[in-house]
Amino acid sequence: HSNVLAWLLDPHGSHGMGDEFLKLFISRVIKANPVLKYDVLKWCYLDTSDCEVQREKHWQNTGSRDSLDILITAYQPHGLDYVIAVENKVKASEGQDQTEKYRRHIEQECPAAVKMYVFLTAKEEKPSDDRWAVLSYKEIYEMLDHVLNHCSFSREAELIINNYRKVCAEIMGI
Hints:
Elements: H1 2-9, H2 20-32, H3 40-44, E1 51-57, E2 68-74, E3 82-89, H4 98-109, E4 114-121, E5 133-136, H5 137-150, H6 155-172
Parallel strand pairs: 3-4, 4-5
Antiparallel strand pairs: 1-2, 2-3
Helix pairs in contact: 2-5, 5-6
């Protein structure tokens, strides 16, 4: 799951839709989590031209083998970078204080960055750290529908996105 999501979230991915999925993802996170009070204007004007998407982000010298599923860093020309952390839980539950540990690592590594923490879950469970936004696979399914109806893709990319949409439907039981 995380490999396909990282590909979709990468503005430079071979899917050919640029930052459409990433911007839609950010918008859904903000709408689904009003209590976290994200600065909508900052996120709306995010420059994704210099964006890095990492899978399985490990931190050195932590004594832990844990790794964050997806870490997106959008380097901004004005110097204030944006970081989006995504912890993806399809069949597993959160490990003990996992989200809090990841947040602390990111805050230490990127203290000045504008940050968004996203707990993606099939079960709509809540993370232990209340600074993480919750997003469900229902929203991912709807986002995939949106891009399939509004973006152009290569035949291969469209096939991958359609198949992943079916996988999301199975996760949700529809």
